[in-house]
Amino acid sequence: MLLVSTAIVIVLVGTAIGESRFDSLDDDQKAMLKMLHDTCIDESGADEALIQKAMKGDFAEDDKLKGAMDESGVPDMDTMVSMLPESMQERGGKMIGVCKSITGSSAPDTAMKLNQCFYKADPEYFFII
């Protein structure tokens, strides 16, 4: 499974590609993000409606939503930042830096808590792939 957090930067990519935070992305970047999103949905079975709610800060305690995040539980934050488009690295990097020490009781729980932290750090800029 893909780490939604990784994508978020990787940790960061929304399904609402038309939103202003994605205006600086070129068509290839938007297509890549959509492909990552679709793959995560297919592999996890996560409900699209729950993902949309999470993008607004309403994180459901749903195993499939948590399952949309990688089981390793130890995301590589530096890689996340480096995979962001250049136009998103500074702001996305700040979000990631604030949440580097977040851990949960399991890999999916860690991924969920990271996304909750990312949202709290910058709700206007937060998105899920």
Topology order in helix (H) and strand (E) letters = HHHHHHH
What is the total tally of β strands?
A: 0
Structural class: mainly alpha
Shape: globular
Can you summarize the main beta sheet? none
Assign a percent range to the helix content: 55-70%
Q: Report the CATH superfamily.
A: Pheromone/general odorant binding protein domain
User: What's the gyration radius in Å?
Assistant: 13 Å
Give the total of domains: 1
- Return the average pLDDT rounded to an integer: 75
Q: What's the CATH C level?
A: Mainly Alpha
* Residue windows where pLDDT falls under 50 for at least 5 positions: 1-18
If classified by CATH, what would the architecture be?
Orthogonal Bundle
Described by its quaternary structure, the protein is: single chain
> What fold name goes in the CATH topology slot?
Recoverin, domain 1
In short, what is this structure?
With 129 residues, the chain is an all-alpha fold. The chain contains seven helices and no strands.
Task: Name the features.
Recoverin, domain 1; 0% strand; mainly alpha; 129 residues; 57% helix
